Amino acid sequence: MTRLNEGSARALPPTVRRFTYDRAAVRTGIVHLGTGAFHRAHQATYYEATLESGDLRWGVLGASLRSASVRDQMVPQDGLYSLVVRDGEDERIQLVGAIRDVLVAPEDPTRLVAAMAASDTHLVTLTVTEKGYKLDPATGALIESDADLAADLASLDRPRTAPGLIVAALAARRAAGLAPFTAISCDNLPHNGTRLRAAALALAGRHDPDLAKWIEGEGAFPETMVDRIVPATEAEDIAALTAKIGVEDRAMVKTEPFTQWVVQDWFAGERPDLAAHGVQLTTAVAPWEEAKLRLLNGAHSGLAYLGALAGIEFVHQFVAFDGGRGFVEALWDQAEATLTPPAELDVAAYRAQLMARFTNSALRHRTLQIAMDGSQKLPQRLLHGIGQRLERGEDVGVMALAVAAWMRWQDGRDDAGMAHVVDDPLAARTAAVARLPTAEAVRGLMAIDAIFPPALAAHDGFTASLARSLEDLRQKGARAVMEERFGTWGSSRRS
Ligand code: CS2
Q1: 305 contacts 409 by C-beta, under 8 angstroms
Q2: Comparing C-alpha atoms, which of 101, 25, 109, 115 is closest to residue 70?
């Protein structure tokens, strides 16, 4: 089967929306670290819109920090891919040309650093996941025991981590008399820009205090909130697209119509006119980020563990079930009360819109995909809100059920006794205690201070609530627990 590339793209059917700019004239103004599906379905579409509006300075060089798979998908396709936007029965296909090349950082870190240090490059954007920042979530210090970070602490000649690449490239820019680029974290972390800046300053300080001072004074690390649901592409998605467009596109991404990007208005130099293409530039990102993390992502993580334990494969199936929908609404009732939402955000409307997004059956978003890396996600999605409610003496039962479901997931068996892999950097630590009797398992997991803040771990009421829910899940299974606690409420609401 012919692959999509610049040649075969000329014969694409008219149903595919194509760009009209002159791709050969595009320059590389952006380097993106972590060119996975989320980048391709989110930031790259804003860069594409900028190119389409005639400003050809903002092409992207993508880089993968670990595997070669994205390069192998994209380079044979000249960087082209299809953005497949699905909403129920409706499907729109857009050809995206913004990504001009993809590098694999470990193969040639020097070339990547040189591209980041080039005078045309003004933005470095990142989707490297929560664990890519190499900061201890509890202390905020560099995780020096991490092998890649240890290598970057020893030498930045061939940087291995995202902070290492950024510091090496900023050092090269300083040496060349250039301004820093703006470094934009696009990961689902509270204060993501502050964290990236902290990691860069700490690492730079260990190599060259003057460099650290320059970065501190001249650099820009805006905070962001990013939102678009992008399930992993599966073989059947590629097959269905091939049947429609007549060429094989191994780099396609599937997503929903909704997209949102809120960026702190803080740039070190030139920038694309993002606001003209729907990006919200603001001084205060935190309230947006908190609402999104605690409502969308908090519900996602809770339903991922409950759903995966119960053998419910997809998000839309979970919320089609009264107990599942009831759980999500009840979780939101508890989470909502912890927010200080931005004045422009109508939380009731936002919740209704989120539920509609979760209901989109064409996405086939797997609970298993969301279940990954729970240790990195739990704090900002659930535990911070729980801490706030506990301080005010409020009930945290529904949020504790979500955390208990995560605990149960760590023992590697679902409710039907089927084994699964716990895909998480702390899996070995959690596995060591997850199978103990309930009270000990709860205590053992809460003792991991990279996940649980000490105040939560010491809270008797919360510990008891977790133990009750974990025992309940162990005895009855997630489906029965949801039916018992939320099923009726769910049915009465809909009738
Ligand atoms: C999800 C997110 O996999 C996950 O952890 O909760 O990727 C979620 O789909 C996005 O944050 C939506 O913007």
Answers
A1: yes
A2: 101
Tokens 């716990």 map to which residue? 422
Domain count, the chain: 2
Ligand 1 pocket residue status of 293, Cβ below 6 Å:
no
Task: Supply the Cα-derived Rg of the chain in whole angstroms.
Answer: 23
The pLDDT of residue 139 is 79
Query: Taking all residues of the chain, what is their mean pLDDT, rounded to a whole number?
Result: 96
Confidence (pLDDT) at 490: 41
Whether residue 300 has its Cβ less than 6 Å from ligand 1: yes
Q: Out of 130, 185, 188, 227, give the residue to mutate to test ligand 1, the one with the largest number of ligand atoms within 8 Å of its CB.
A: 188
Instruction: Find the domain containing 441 and state its range.
Output: 286-494
Residues 6 or more apart whose CB falls under 8 angstroms from that of 420 comprise: 308, 368, 409, 412, 413, 414
39 and 68 share a domain?
A: yes
Question: What order of strands is seen across the sheet that includes strand 99-104?
Answer: 99-104, 59-64, 28-33, 123-126, 182-185
pTM for the predicted model, two decimal places: 0.96
Is 188 touching ligand 1 by the criterion CB < 6 Å? yes
Which ligand 1 atom is nearest residue 373's CA?
5
Are 252 and 342 members of one domain? no
CB 321 within 8 A of CB 380: no
* 229 Cα–ligand 1 center, Å: 6
**Beta carbon of 370 within 6 Å of any ligand 1 atom:** yes
**Secondary structure of residue 490 in the 3-state scheme:** helix
Q: Is residue 3 in a domain?
A: no
With respect to residue 159, please indicate whether it lies within any of the assigned structural domains: yes
- Distance, CA 307 to ligand 1 centroid (Å)? 15
357 and 260 belong to one structural domain: no
The span from the CA of 377 to the CA of 369, in Å, is: 13
**Atom 5 in ligand 1: which residue has the minimum CA distance?**
370
Ligand 1 neighbourhood includes 227 CB (under 6 angstroms)? yes
Ligand 1 atom closest to the CA of 230, numbered from 1: 9
Q: What is the pLDDT of residue 130?
A: 87
